[in-house]
Design brief:
33% helix; sialyltransferase cstii, chain A; 2 domains; alpha/beta; 388 residues
Length: 388
């Protein structure tokens, strides 16, 4: 069994993007009409319109590793209200099965695998906000019963999401000079395409202002000899949740050994690397509640017992200097095979333009007159909504 080491990172990344690009393009086109109608009805919002957290509030980031089955859900009890819970489609039912309704479910997969999601006949899902992108599987998007919040996938070098998506999902602003047109992206907030849902959860949580973050079930490996946590489905006949074993997707020949001896795969090692990159960019105070993760002791490990009582002290006494987190994470990435270029995270690409058509990446970059026109338009819309 091979030891932890990533080779041909650039080639692997290019192959992954080429594999998914057609699905992203198809979903972008299929989702356009639904998202436009949803914005008008209020069911769909843009990520930048969500309220920011102005003081420390902890969040739980939920992975689907087998250690999730050992998490003491019952210990949170009524204290779970202190936490904002981020989960994925594959583990949302783990929370519901223990009587806890998560706040956000993050979905970034464009594949049809999302359609295997098992709903319980209840209104609980209507209370959970879906955080996703315009490239999400179309049928799953139509099926989601609760509120929907959209962010843009950020993938440097991919024209599909960097150039065409902002233009496809944009509002045209008319000016007195008909020769100049401005297109303001409806979903201006972009998060780097970090490969897996956990990394997207971290980006969303940090953008909204949540800290500290507690990783639960984030193993990136086959801990306990299992490929993942139980998959819960509601049995209508027995009227209770039933946990089913998750079947593995990889053969023994595809497995690797992490540095701390946990079986993993090349794909999961890439997710681990992207986790370090996201961590370095967000500089978040992150703790891991799993001792069976391939992250090992690179992330401060805490017991999940009594988190509700201890989280504030953990926030105030974070053991890693935030000003050094970037270098710390880059050192870890270099160990995995990344070239040590020691460059700060790249700035977002400059606004695109074609002829006299301009796409701006933020409201502040618009001309003052156009800003005032947008404000007046939004004011009228808000007055109409309040009157209705």
């Amino acid at each position: 069994m091979q030891r932890e080491r990533l080779e041909d990172l650039d080639q692997t990344g290019a192959q992954t993007l080429a594999w998914w690009q057609d699905a992203w393009a198809r979903n972008m086109a299929l989702n356009a009409s639904f998202l436009q109608k949803g914005r008008k009805s209020g069911k769909v919002k843009a990520a930048h319109k969500l309220p920011k957290i102005l003081e420390p509030r902890p969040a739980i980031i939920t992975g689907s590793g087998s250690s999730l089955d050992e998490f003491p859900f019952e210990n949170l009890g009524k204290d779970c209200e202190q936490f904002t819970i981020f989960c994925s489609v594959s583990n949302i039912n783990s929370w519901l099965a223990h009587g806890i309704i998560p706040d956000y479910v993050v979905a970034v997969d464009s594949a049809s695998a999302l359609l295997n999601f098992q709903y319980k006949p209840t209104d609980d899902y209507k209370k959970i906000t879906l955080l996703t992108t315009p490239t999400i599987n179309h049928k799953f998007l139509l099926k989601w019963p609760g509120p929907i919040v959209i962010f843009r996938p950020h993938q440097p070098g991919m024209d599909l999401v960097e150039q065409y998506l902002p233009k496809m999902y944009a509002d045209e602003i008319e000016t007195e000079d008909a020769r100049n047109r401005f297109f303001v992206p409806q979903f201006p907030i972009g998060f780097i395409n970090a490969g897996c849902t956990v990394n997207s959860m971290i980006e969303n949580a940090c953008y909204l202002g949540y800290e500290p973050l507690f990783l639960v079930g984030v193993d990136f490996g086959y801990s306990n000899g299992k490929p993942g946590s139980l998959r819960y489905a509601y049995d209508k006949k027995q009227k209770k949740w039933i946990g089913h074993e998750h079947k593995g997707l990889f053969t023994m020949e595809q497995l690797r050994l992490s540095k701390n001896g946990i079986r993993t795969t090349s794909e999961l090692l890439h997710y681990k690397l992207q986790f370090y990159i996201v961590w370095s960019m967000t500089r978040a105070r992150i703790y891991n509640c799993s001792t069976k993760s391939i992250l090992g002791n690179t992330v401060p490990v805490v017991s999940p017992i009594d988190l509700a009582l201890r989280w504030r002290g953990l926030y105030e006494n974070y053991p890693i200097n935030e000003s050094r987190l970037y270098d710390y994470c880059m050192d870890l990435a270099v160990e995995m095979g990344v070239k040590d270029q020691r460059q700060k995270p790249q700035e977002p690409p400059a606004p695109a333009s074609v002829g006299n058509v301009q796409v701006v990446n933020s409201f502040e970059s618009l001309p003052p007159a156009v800003q005032e026109e947008i404000k007046n338009k939004e004011k009228k819309e808000n007055e109409q909504e309040s009157n209705s």
